[in-house]
# Entry
Amino acid sequence: MEIRVLKYFLTVAREGSITRAAEILHVTQPTLSHHMKILVECGLVNARKEGKWQHYSLNCETLTQFKEFIEGLTCCGCGRSDFVAAFFWWANLD
# Structure
């Protein structure tokens, strides 16, 4: 999975609209919807249909497991890498 796809979700969550997020990200709405479907299929995101609207939320259980896995990784045996800290800061997962 590409970090770009996670950024797509964060933009959708912040904007509350796939249409608006697509405009901001300079991608088409069908492209963004496709990537959101991938995140749902991976278990990172929950989807709830309400009428014609699809509402997305983080799957906190899966993300907690992912975070624990990532935090267990080290860079050359030197402890938590700067990359991991930067990733969680960027993704607002801390």
